[in-house]
Amino acid sequence: MFIYQTIEGAKMFPKFARIALHMAIEQTLILIKPDGAFRKLTGLTIDRLDATGLEMVGAKMICVTERLAREHYSSLSDKPFFEGLIKYIRGDYHGIKDNRILALVYRGENAIKAVRAIAGATNPEQAAPGTIRGSFGRITTTGQFENVIHASSDPTDAAKEVALWFKKDEIIP
Ligand code: IDP
Ligand code: MG
Description:
The protein is an alpha+beta fold. It has helices at 7-12, 17-22, 34-38, 42-51, 66-72, 82-89, 111-119, 132-136, 155-165; strands at 25-32, 55-63, 100-109, 138-139, 145-146, 149-151. A 4-stranded antiparallel sheet has the order 2-3-1-6, sandwiched between helices. Bound molecules: inosine-5'-diphosphate (IDP) and magnesium ion.
């Protein structure tokens, strides 16, 4: 079984390639968004992340500058909700002092999917009950999604986001 979990195994035994690919060790970025911090959901979020069995390999409070916010969400810059999103992530709606939020990196098998699963769908009204967003997210009367946490959505985004928020030596090798 173990041999099939390696790339070489996948090449030698193509029918097991899918198993090998599904065993990828990934890193993913999680941000406790300002509503999550404001509502004291940081501990609960970490508890659920730890319960996945993934390993926390990076953690720090970061000042979300205008530049960092816009870079992080650059792929959404043409969306009508973009400016509101920048204000939200910078703490403008929740009075987060100096715009500081907690950023985390978790690592493990299929970490990206595993964290997305406990986070729930983007729209908190559509997120499954029991997920973090389904339990604690809301849409404000002005249409702002407050969905508690950010979680990287795919390997390309995860690599980009981890590198944007963390220096190499801030992550446990
Ligand atoms: P994700 O956070 O689940 O990956 P994205 O589509 O990458 O979802 O959007 C990033 C963030 O932008 C969301 O988490 C949410 O805060 C905000 N957002 C996405 N779609 C909407 C929308 O339709 N209205 C308001 N805010 C939105
Ligand atoms: Mg996303």
